[in-house]
Amino acid sequence: MSPDTVTTIGGTLVQHGRVSDRIYVMHLSPADLPGILDDLDALAETEGYTKIFAKVPASALSLFIARGYVVEARVPRFFRGREDGYFASKFLDAKRRRESAETAAVLAAVREKAGDARPADLPPGWTCAPAAEDDAEDLAALYGEVFATYPFPIADPGYLRETMAGDYRYFLVRTEDGRIAAASSAEIYPGDGNVEMTDFATHRAFRGRNLSIYLLSRMEEAMRAAGMKTAFTIARALSYPINATFARAGYAWAGTLVNNTNICGGFESMNVWYRTLDE
């Protein structure tokens, strides 16, 4: 199956494709409203997609609601540290709205860990640093091993190099002998003043060392320095470890995106977590 496509409709950045059977409005250009709503409906009908979801500023939310979208998550001051943001979804197949009871159970368990972050230190000789283009091959190999499926082609070194040249910053933890033990990325939206903390992966040989906690802390430092106002993530709702990582680090739960993403071999719901960085 071909990777999903990232393209623009007018000035709006969208991802769509068969992998996750959806359209994702990654960055909405207000200048495209209200016509972009017709464009999204037309694309979904042509391709037979069963879900559209979008990151929507509060000032535009009523237009989406009037067209059949529902709010699945809300992040205060998401846009430029001032305007609330909403993850609004339109379900085009009733089956896609059916949620698993396991999702709520995992969320309840991790919320008990809220703010329970323990300082994470690397073993002697290990390092954590931003990735460079020369790291793309090794990084792609790690992602390919950890994720059976993924909404973006992160197991492709060419894709990683391309995104590194744009608004993505990858971070690597390496062992004393130079092997990549864990990785993550910060997907920066400069105009929106927010950043997605994503693409966390730990090699199976090095799990249980709190490497994701360490990476997240380092990423937050870098993103504060870059002037970002809000950090957020879209995490697999059935994964206790990654949700616990964000809960322990002080992130707040914003909502759950139901049957949203084809990841690790099947469709899964995703939890949105956020944290204000400029306080």
Outline of the structure:
With 279 residues, this protein is of the alpha+beta class.
* Mass-distribution shape: globular
Written as H for each helix and E for each strand, in order along the chain, the element string is EEEHEHEEHEHHEEEHEHEE
CATH homologous superfamily of the largest domain - what is it? Gcn5-related N-acetyltransferase (GNAT)
The name of the CATH topology of the largest domain is: Aminopeptidase
Number of strands: 13
How many domain units? 2
Most strands sheet: 7 strands, mixed
Bin the strand percentage.
35-45%
Q: Output the radius of gyration.
A: 18 Å
Are there runs of 5+ residues with pLDDT below 50, and where? none
Strand order of the largest sheet: 7-8-9-10-11-13-12
C-alpha termini separation: 43 Å
Could you tell me the mean pLDDT? 94
**Overall CATH class of the largest domain:** Alpha Beta
Write up what this structure looks like.
It is built from 7 helices and 13 strands. It starts with a strand and ends with a strand. A 7-stranded mixed β-sheet has the order 7-8-9-10-11-13-12. Helix 4 packs across helix 5. It is globular and about 55 Å long. It has about 280 residues and is of the alpha+beta class. The chain folds into 2 domains: about 5-95, Gcn5-related N-acetyltransferase (GNAT) (Aminopeptidase), CATH 3.40.630.30; about 110-275, Aminopeptidase.
